[in-house]
Structures are given as structure tokens and as C-alpha cells.
């Protein structure tokens, strides 16, 4: 997934969930707050109504007492008078201006430790203030709030409200039953401030008062529950939708398992976690070989089922902190933890584990032969430069790490039986080089960066220059001189070699033509023709056209075919060689003895020249066996009427030996290395 898509996905993820959750939480808090506020206001309203009633009562007592006092009665007489007047219903508590208790009626008294002072007009529209004091018998006085005088623990209120109550008849009387009776004292200053009287009041709460509050609360709660539930459902749906969406985004459509995007995200997370930074991991590229061929034979559906089975198998084998996903085609990426005592053990453990995985995977389809390969990129424990323990792996790029594992897997090109390959930097350098060559080769050919070098061939008898081999050199403006060994194999793989061979043949033909026009000594020159070329139909005609474009004599051009070409389609090869010879060209077998020498091909193909590979002359030949082989090879060639060229000759003894055996030409550093044309032309003038 591209980074733009990834950003969009993350944005979508954030967008979907958070607004719903935040809205839900805010709305719920708001509702709870609102219910609490309403309940409190409602409770206050009921209490306030009751207090106002009591307040009227206290004012009445005050007026009676003041009446007695204004008649000149003492305070004691005034209280007695009040008692007679109210039939002893009102308890009063009188203090003088110094706070000394003068009279007290009733069993309880004000508890001055708990005083409430407020203005009634503020809340009930009365232009009066009052001071309320708790009663000493008050069983429910407890901490908190300005209304604490009238406070009672909620559980007690609820208990009393929903108790069966005394014997009563019907719902009405049950509701009217008094469940809370609480005394308190209201202050009534007497005369002109001489005395402070406190009138005992009783607040009585009936069951219905609390009941109404509860009913109100329940209705409010029910009403508010509807939007809360709707919002909750909506939030849940958002979360579920978002989860499903994430699952879809992480779903691999072919295997039904996780896809690469998932692997990348989670593998990166695992590797960058602090506790994992100290552990070694391996990124593995697991490849099912010849998947296309499998699909072609058994059908695409069967192919996809196989991938699905692989996914299921890997799921069962993958541990905690490990991941895998299909990358593309039949390639899976794995993140495995491979712990051991040291680097070598980490690698060995990893190798063992993957080998056994591959072995099991190969048995997935008992009736069909399937083969797997793996490339492994080991990720060592992270060692921060400054050695600080709290650092974790940074800038982990799973794609890059996987590319290296993949590079390791393809590095051996399926050439050997190795099933697993570990990545190393050299491998990367090689692949980067191959990429560079492939990217630049065509432009280089057009720009004339390929140049013809000539390596002279000498006669061992008279030491004269009698021939030459044209060898290509890539003179790159950025890389300098590049030897053919570094790019010819890549050209052969890509097929570009045919273009290069054509170019070299044309260049040699052009040179021969120029030398002829200039009246220079004419030297036969051999040109290498890659085996890839021999697969082409009409090669002889094609070469003929290239040469004839410049017009040199055909016998001045020799075509070198490597020995390996003789293993391809022999009939075409024989035909092409015959045609080339018919056109007057010479044909040689290059590198004879380097690989699997086919003596048989010497029988069937009418070649002119046999080029003995330089390997014959490498190393010690103490027991003289090498010399025997060379001697017999020369003898064989001569018997078949072929001339012999010995390649890679570097020592005088070798020259002397070859001269003694009747070798026709010698090509090697002993005489000359491959050289640019101008130098070669000078050499010809001197040595030919
Ligand atoms: P080759 O055709 O067998 O060429 C001979 C190689 O042996 C040349 O390597 C040459 O430099 C080297 N050589 C010659 N004498 C000595 C010696 O005394 N000691 C040592 N150590 N080496 C010696 P070069 O030029 O690097 O070419 C390597 C191969 O690349 C050639 O082997 C040939 O197979 C291929 N090649 C070169 N140019 C072309 C071309 O234009 N087309 C094709 N198809 N292949 C080419
Ligand atoms: Mg050659
Ligand atoms: Mg050779």
C-alpha cells in the first residue's frame, strides 16, 4: 500500500471512532449531571416549601412573645404565657444577649455546633432571613453541605421510603405516612435584641415527598436513557464498522489470511518495541517454485487453494511476536524470532526452523510435487551507538528488509539444490550491479561505450604476429574500464549479448575493410559469438550481411563458438557452421577443455580451429600429466585437420613446449595482453 493510501487509512481509522466515543462520553456525563441537578433542585423545592411553613410558625411564636414583653411581662412570664396560649405545643429556648441560657422548654435544645444562616428571599421570594440551628437530638446530622441540618444518609431515606410501613389502608395512606421527622431550631430575636429565642420546628417528610422525587428521577433517567442508548449503539456500530473495515484492509483476497500491509505494520511495531530490540529476528522470503506452472497444469483455483493451505499451515506454525503474510504471487513474508547464545547460533536455529518448515510445506500436497525456497535476512539484536539500554530499533523499513531476504533467495538463481540462502551485503552489491548493467547497457551501446580490444596471436615457431582475437571492453564514463567477465554473463541472461556480438562483428569487419583500404598488413581476427546466438535461425546469413556491409574478405574473420554451445541443438549448430564455412568464414571451438569437452562434437562439426583453454596451463604439472593431455589434444586436432591455438600462455617454457608439439598459434600474456586498436596496429607493423 502506498504511503498516501496508508495516510488515508490512518485518518479514516481515527475519524471513525473518536468522535462517536467522545460524543457518547460527553453526552452521558451531561445527562448524569443534569439528572443530579434536577433531583437536587426538586428536593430543595420540597424542603423549602416545608421550611417556609415552619418559618411562619416561628414568626407567630415570636410575635406572641414580643406581645407579652411589650406588655411589661418578664421573659419567663412571656414564655409561660406562650405555653398557655399555644397549649404547650411550642418548645422554646431563650438566651440573653451574653449567650446565657435563660429558659428551655422540652427535652432537646439547639446544637450550636451546626448553624445554617440564609436568606429566604433568595430562594422563596420572602424578604426575610433566618438562622436555623440543629437539634441536639438530631440523629442524622452528618458532614457536608449547607443543608446538612436537614441531611439524612441516602440509603436510610431509600430504606424508609420503600419499607412496608405501618398498618395502613390502601396506597393513599401508605404514601401519606411520615417517614422522616427531624427537629431544628429557628432563631427569633426578641424585643430590641435583649433576648434570642429559638423556636423548635419539626420537619416531617411523607413517603410521597421522596416518592415524587424518585419518580421524577426515574422518569428523567428513562427519558435520558433513550438518547444515551441510541448514542451507545451508534458508538458500538462505529467501532464494529471500523474493525470490519480494518479487517478488510488487512485481508488477503487470495489466501483469506493477512496481507502485506498488515505484515508491514505489525512487523515494524514488533521490531521497534523496546523489549524486542534486544532480540534477534529473521525476515524470510518464502517462495513456492514454479507456481505459474502449477496453475497452468492444475488451474488457477487449485493454485489459490494451495496458497490458502500454505497460509493455514503457517498460521499453525507461527509463534507469539511472529508474523507472516502473502507478499505477492506465491511469495510469503515471515518475521521469525530466532534466539540463540550468539550470532552463529541464531543463524543455525533459524536455518533449522526454516528447513523443517519447508520440509513440511513440501508435503502439503501428497500427490503433487511442490518445492520451496527461502531467503533469510537476519536482524541482529539492536546495539545503540552510545550503548544506552533504553534505546530501541529505529527507522525499521520492513519492505527494505524483505527485499534483502528476497535478494538472498534469488541470488543463486535456482542453480543449486540449496533451499535456503542467508542475505549478506556482497549479494546486494552483486544485484545492484546487475541492475545497473541492465539499466545502462542499451544506452552504452548507442553511445559507443563498448570498444574493441585486440589480443594478438603469435606463431611459436617464428615468434611472428599471425592473428588476433577481438575482445570487448566497456569504457563507462562513470565506472571506467569494465572487463567482459563482469557484464557478459548478464548480457547472456538478458539476451542483449546478440546485439553486442553483432556490434563486435561489424566493428571487426569495418576495421579489416579500413586496413585493406589503407594497405596495411592483413591479419585474421577472431570474434566471439555467444551460444545464445546459435539459437537464432539464419545466423550465417545474418553474419554475412553484417560483414558484407563493410566488404572485407570473409577468410579474414574467424568466429569463436564456446564449447558449451555444442550442448544446445547440435543440428542447428552443425548447419550454421557449415553455412559459415561455405561463406568462407573460419570457425573455431573456444575454451576447449574448460567444461564438459565433447569429443563427439569434434567428429560431427567441421571446425577449422581448436582453442585450448588456458586452464590446461594453470598450476603445477610436476608429474607431466597435463603436458600429455595437451600433447594428445594437439595431435587429435591435427589429425582432424584443425589448427590449434593455445590460450592463456604466460611462461616461456609453455611456449617452448607448445612449439615442440606443433601448436599453430599462442595467445597469452607472455606475448601480449588485449590492447586498444591503435596500439595493436603498431604491434602489427612491428611483429607481423
Ligand atoms: P575468451 O574468448 O576465452 O577470451 C580469452 C580471455 O582470456 C580474455 O579475457 C583474455 O584477456 C584472457 N587471456 C588471454 N591470455 C591470457 C593469459 O595469459 N593469462 C590470463 N590470465 N588471461 C588471459 P577477457 O578479455 O576478460 O574475456 C573473457 C571472456 O569474455 C572471453 O573469453 C569471452 O568468452 C568473453 N568475451 C569477450 N569479449 C566478447 C565478445 O565480444 N562477445 C562475446 N560473446 N564474448 C566475449
Ligand atoms: Mg574467445
Ligand atoms: Mg577462450
Secondary structure: number of strands: 21
| Number of helical stretches of at least 4 residues | 21
Major sheet: size, sense and barrel closure?
10 strands, mixed
Question: What is the residue-averaged pLDDT?
Answer: 86
Please report which band the strand proportion falls in: under 5%, 5-15%, 15-25%, 25-35%, 35-45% or over 45%: 15-25%
Global geometry: rod-shaped
Question: Strand pairing plus helix content: what structural class?
Answer: alpha/beta
Rg result: 53 Å
Total individual domains: 3
CATH class of the largest domain reads Alpha Beta
- Helix amount: 40-55%
The CATH level-2 architecture of the largest domain is identified as: Alpha-Beta Barrel
Name the poorly predicted regions.
Answer: none
- What is the name of the CATH topology of the largest domain? TIM Barrel
Q: How far apart are the termini?
A: 67 Å
Bound molecules: ligand C2E, magnesium ion
**CATH level 4 superfamily of the largest domain:** EAL domain
Summarize the structure.
By secondary structure, the chain is an alpha/beta fold.
Describe the structure.
This protein folds into three domains: 16-219, no CATH class; 260-421, 2-Layer Sandwich (Alpha-Beta Plaits), CATH 3.30.70.270; 434-687, EAL domain (TIM Barrel), CATH 3.20.20.450. It is an alpha/beta fold and 688 residues long. It is 49% helix and 20% strand. The radius of gyration is 53 Å and the shape is rod-shaped. The chain is built from 21 helices and 21 strands. Strands 12, 13, 14, 15, 16, 17, 18, 19, 20 and 21 form a ten-stranded mixed sheet that branches. Strands 2-1-6-5-4-3 form a six-stranded antiparallel sheet. A five-stranded mixed sheet has the order 8-9-7-10-11, sandwiched between helices. The mean pLDDT is 86. Strand 17, helix 18 and strand 18 (609-612) form a beta-alpha-beta unit. Residues 455, 471-472, 483-485, 488, 497, 500-501, 504, 528, 530, 560, 590-591, 614, 647-650, 667-669, 674 line the site of ligand C2E. The site of ligand C2E has 25 residues, from strand 13, helix 15 and strand 17.
Amino acid at each position: 500500500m502506498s504511503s498516501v493510501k496508508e495516510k488515508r487509512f490512518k485518518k479514516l481509522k481515527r475519524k471513525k471512532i473518536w468522535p462517536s466515543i467522545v460524543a457518547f462520553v460527553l453526552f452521558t456525563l451531561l445527562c448524569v449531571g443534569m439528572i443530579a441537578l434536577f433531583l437536587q433542585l426538586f428536593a430543595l423545592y420540597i424542603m423549602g416549601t416545608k421550611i417556609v411553613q415552619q418559618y411562619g410558625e416561628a414568626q407567630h411564636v415570636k410575635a406572641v412573645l414580643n406581645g407579652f414583653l411589650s406588655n411589661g411581662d418578664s421573659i419567663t412570664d412571656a414564655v409561660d404565657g406562650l405555653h398557655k396560649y399555644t397549649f404547650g405545643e411550642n418548645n422554646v429556648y431563650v438566651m440573653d444577649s451574653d449567650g446565657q441560657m435563660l429558659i428551655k422548654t422540652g427535652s432537646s435544645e439547639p446544637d450550636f455546633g451546626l448553624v445554617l444562616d440564609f436568606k429566604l428571599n433568595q430562594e422563596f421570594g420572602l424578604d426575610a432571613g433566618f438562622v436555623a440551628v440543629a437539634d441536639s437530638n438530631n440523629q442524622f446530622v452528618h458532614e457536608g453541605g449547607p443543608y446538612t441540618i436537614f441531611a439524612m444518609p441516602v440509603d436510610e431515606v431509600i430504606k424508609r421510603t420503600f419499607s412496608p410501613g405501618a398498618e395502613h389502608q390502601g396506597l393513599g395512606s401508605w404514601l401519606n405516612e411520615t417517614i422522616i421527622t427531624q427537629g431544628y431550631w429557628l432563631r427569633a430575636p426578641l424585643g430590641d435584641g435583649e433576648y434570642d429565642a429559638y423556636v423548635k420546628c419539626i420537619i416531617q417528610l411523607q413517603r410521597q415527598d421522596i416518592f415524587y422525587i424518585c419518580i421524577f428521577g426515574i422518569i428523567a433517567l428513562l427519558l435520558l436513557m433513550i438518547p444515551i442508548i441510541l448514542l451507545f449503539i451508534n458508538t458500538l456500530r462505529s467501532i464494529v464498522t471500523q474493525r470490519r473495515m480494518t479487517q478488510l484492509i488487512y485481508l488477503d483476497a487470495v489466501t483469506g489470511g493477512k496481507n502485506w500491509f498488515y505484515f508491514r505494520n505489525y512487523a515494524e511495531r514488533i521490531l521497534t518495541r523496546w523489549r524486542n530490540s534486544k532480540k534477534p529476528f529473521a525476515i524470510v522470503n518464502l517462495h513456492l517454485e514454479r507456481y505459474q506452472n502449477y496453475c497452468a497444469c492444475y488451474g488457477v483455483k487449485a493454485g489459490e487453494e494451495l496458497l490458502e493451505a500454505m497460509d493455514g499451515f503457517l498460521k499453525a506454525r507461527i509463534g507469539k511476536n511472529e508474523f507472516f503474510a502473502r507478499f505477492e504471487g506465491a511469495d510469503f513474508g515471515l518475521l521469525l524470532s530466532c534466539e540463540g547464545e550468539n550470532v552463529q547460533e541464531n543463524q543455525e536455529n533459524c536455518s533449522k526452523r526454516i528447513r523443517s518448515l519447508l520440509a513440511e510445506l513440501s508435503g502439503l500436497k501428497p500427490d503433487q510435487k511442490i518445492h520451496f525456497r527461502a531467503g533469510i535476512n537476519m536482524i541482529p539484536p539492536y546495539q545503540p551507538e552510545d550503548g544506552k539500554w533504553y534505546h530501541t530499533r529505529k527507522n525499521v523499513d520492513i519492505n527494505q528488509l524483505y527485499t534483502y531476504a528476497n535478494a538472498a533467495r534469488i541470488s543463486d538463481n535456482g542453480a543449486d539444490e540449496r533451499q535456503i540462502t542467508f542475505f549478506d551485503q556482497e549479494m546486494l552489491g552483486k544485484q545492484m550491479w546487475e541492475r545497473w548493467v541492465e539499466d545502462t547497457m542499451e544506452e552504452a551501446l548507442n553511445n559507443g561505450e563498448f570498444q574493441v580490444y585486440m589480443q594478438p596471436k603469435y606463431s611459436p615457431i617464428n615468434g611472428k604476429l599471425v592473428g588476433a582475437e577481438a575482445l570487448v571492453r566497456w569504457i563507462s564514463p562513470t565506472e571506467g574500464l569494465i572487463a567482459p567477465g563482469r557484464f557478459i554473463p548478464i548480457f547472456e541472461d538478458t539476451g542483449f549479448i546478440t546485439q553486442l556480438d553483432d556490434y563486435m562483428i561489424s566493428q571487426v569487419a569495418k576495421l579489416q575493410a579500413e586496413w585493406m583500404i589503407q594497405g596495411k598488413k592483413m591479419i585474421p581476427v577472431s570474434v566471439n559469438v555467444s551460444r545464445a546466438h546459435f539459437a537464432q535461425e539464419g545466423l550465417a546469413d545474418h553474419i554475412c550481411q553484417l560483414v558484407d556491409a563493410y566488404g572485407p574478405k570473409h577468410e579474414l574473420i574467424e568466429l569463436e563458438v564456446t564449447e558449451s554451445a555444442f550442448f544446445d541443438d547440435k543440428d542447428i549448430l552443425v548447419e550454421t557452421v557449415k553455412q559459415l564455412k561455405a561463406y568462407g568464414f573460419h570457425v573455431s571451438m573456444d575454451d576447449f577443455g574448460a567444461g564438459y569437452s565433447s569429443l563427439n562434437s569434434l567428429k560431427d562439426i567441421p571446425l577449422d580451429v581448436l582453442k585450448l583453454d588456458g586452464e590446461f596451463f594453470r598450476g603445477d604439472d610436476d608429474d607431466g600429466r597435463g603436458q600429455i593431455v595437451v600433447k594428445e589434444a594437439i595431435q587429435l586436432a591435427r589429425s582432424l585437420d584443425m589448427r590449434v591455438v593455445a590460450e592463456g600462455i604466460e611462461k616461456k617454457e609453455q611456449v617452448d613446449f607448445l612449439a615442440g608439439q606443433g601448436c599453430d598459434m599462442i595467445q597469452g600474456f607472455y606475448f601480449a595482453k588485449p590492447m586498444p586498436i591503435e596500439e595493436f596496429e603498431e604491434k602489427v607493423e612491428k611483429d607481423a
